[in-house]
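Bug #77: duplicate submission created two jobs. Keeping one. Sequence:
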Amino acid sequence: DFTMTLYLRHYWKDERLSFPSTNNKSMTFDGRLVKKIWVPDVFFVHSKRSFIHDTTTDNIMLRVFPDGHVLYSMRVTVTAMCNMDFSRFPLDSQTCSLELESYAYTDEDLMLYWKNGNESLKTDEKISLSQFLIQKFHTTSRLAFYSSTGWYNRLYINFTLRRHIFFFLLQTYFPATLMVMLSWVSFWIDRRAVPARVSLGITTVLTMSTIITGVNASMPRVSYIKAVDIYLWVSFVFVFLSVLEYAAVNYLTTVQERKERKLQKRFSCTCGIPHSKTMMLDGNYSESDANSLAGYTRNQMAPEEEKQEKIVVHLAMSNESNSSRKRGLKGHVGLRIIQNTHAIDKYSRLIFPGTYIFFNLIYWSVFS
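Kept job's structure:
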């Protein structure tokens, strides 16, 4: 719907209202004389509500010239229907029209036309709307046919409205884009930090759902897809896929660790080491003493009756030095740090932003 307040002015000539005048000046009357003379029975087609302003009196003026020309003016507010197409909302332009027509007189009895064409329609230059930019006004006229009564002259006031996009950029597009970018942060978080990545994914999904619900609540219930729906639902899919991405990473990590545990159970920890010697060692021996005792068996080192006071230790003797063991430990730790980032996370850091940027380029090139 749209509501318009206008000054509706009719011009015609009625010789019965002519009067002699020496100075050729017109006479002006108020609405009381309108009920006593003939006036056009113009009504607004497809109007839902309309009224003539009556504060402090009826806003009606009747001006009669000596030769019988009549100017009939009234101040009217009308709310009419406009068939809008929201398929490109909020990047849309709407064309609405206010239609005027005689109710009783056909085109054979009464002919309606614009007195000065497009110049007949004049608007306030300061007029502005909160959501729309008024691009242009223009007038047209044509015949309307009714099967039971005939042909009628119909006048059109056409105007084109273009919606302001900045409001929707701040309230819809920008928050949705930030939520999608926020969901990408989980790709840089350690895959073992389950609470952090799961809470981040759920938060972005719920926020996107709130944005979609808020936009649809302020829109008419239409059965087709709007441009804003495409953007929001694609953004929602990106956020949802980031959650599924971590679910895949977590599942593959669990499967990999399960396989590693099976391999560790299958092979002992001393597999691949040259020799293993058994000896007796109490708490007073140092590491160098333990190395010097390599090669002795338990029976050679202590008598049978001292077994209660000794500790049996299995030492895996290797030819590697302490420095080489430290280097191997460092390499192992570095390998584990690298493995904390799954290959899926590495690819997602490039695929998700690249795909979303490509979608934005297509979206704004099509709907702008």
